[in-house]
Amino acid sequence: MLAALTFPVATRAQGNTAARSSDPNNLSGVWQFAPGGGGQGPGDNFPTLTPWGKAKYDANKPGYGPKAAPGGNDPILKCDPTGFPRILFQIWPFEIIQIPGRILMFFEGQHTIRPIWMDGRKLPNDPDPTWYGYSVGRWEGDTLVVETIGFNEKTWLGAQGQPHSDEMRTIERYRRVDQNTIQFNLTIIDPKTYTKTWEAEPRQIKLKPGVEIPESFCVASEEEEFNRRIREPAARQPGKE
Amino acid sequence: MSKRSSGFWAVITLVLLFCAPGSAHHGNSAYDEAVRVTIKGSVTEFVWTNPHCQVYLDVTDKSGKVVHWAVETNSPAILTRAGWTRRSIKFGDQITVILCPAKNGSPVAYMGSGDPGTKVIFADGHELDFTDKAAQ
To answer: Which chain A positions have a beta carbon within 8 Å of B75's beta carbon?
Structure first.
């Protein structure tokens, strides 16, 4: 992490200054994760699971990763909220909107708004568990640091079925290394699920000039119809109707 | 598969491509992304629904048997950025589709931005693929 925090100085010295946003603390715009290690999740190289975490992982039947199989029980196949951090890694873009006291992340996936409080408040002591948690952020130089707690246990961390508990705490770091690129680091602290802190695969997020976020709800009734007409026939074992 | 006529597979062409497994976006591993199949048929329905648009078409094999295919693809937002609209495919259109078939042999398939080479070709020769044109 020390290397990550000192790297932007070197990057700027290498001549990308002309393309940089004039305000290093302004990430406004539409962005999307570039393909990278971990795919649609924080990666498969997670720390050793606790017995509680292993039981939860064993129950998850994902469509991606080492456990991939047709069918499965991925919660988003019912349009359950994708949750955090998984929504970051999806193939759809998101807009960062900076307004006084808050940064809003507006995700195309499930048409979701995630507020990050930037007004100096502390994390609450005992927040209600939610799909996206409760987030507060701050600038450390040109790096946006976001801490989040207060998750429910219903979501996966990624498409590969990585589990988490309601004790999870996440720390995100966003550092704009040139006009079109944010370097992203994610720390996952969840001792109920993992035996040590998980530093996820570092990723790059790319600016998507010209892209607008359209309405894109996931609607359960429509998804049920899709499941009936396509997903279930595609996953059915040969010879079974 | 066992219910299909032996001539069924005569109407399709199997093309092996080297592509990156796991790069597709459809959220399940029911499809064989190392394989491309070409089918040609008459559109019965084009569903423009988030997060998975769908194309349904009737494919007639050499023996005259009609097989109804269901093809999953990307979200309206992704397709819009690739130049599609909800009116791009109409009932009765004669189209050729290059797709990734279901592993279980069902006439169900995927085409989309994660699987290079998948696309729709219309009778007049124009094509629709999944290249993001909005952000170029």
So the answer is: 92, 216
Q: Which CATH architecture has domain B8-128?
A: Beta Barrel (2.40)
- ipTM more than 0.90? no
- A40-53 confidence digits (pLDDT tens): 999 988 999 999 99
The rounded distance, in Å, linking the Cα atoms of A96 and A215 is 16
Cβ atoms A145, A28 nearer than 8 A = no
Q: How many angstroms separate the Cα of A71 from the Cα of each of A43, A77, A153, B113?
A: 21, 10, 21, 21
Among A32, A230, A232, A241, the strongest candidate for a mutation testing the B interface, having the largest count of B CBs within 10 A, is A230
Interface test mutation site (partner A, options B3, B19, B29, B108, max chain A beta carbons within 10 A):
B29
Domain ranges of chain B: 8-128
Q: Please list, in sequence order, all residues whose beta carbon lies within 8 angstroms of the beta carbon of residue A60, skipping any fewer than 6 positions away.
A: A67, A73, A74, A156, A161, A162, A163
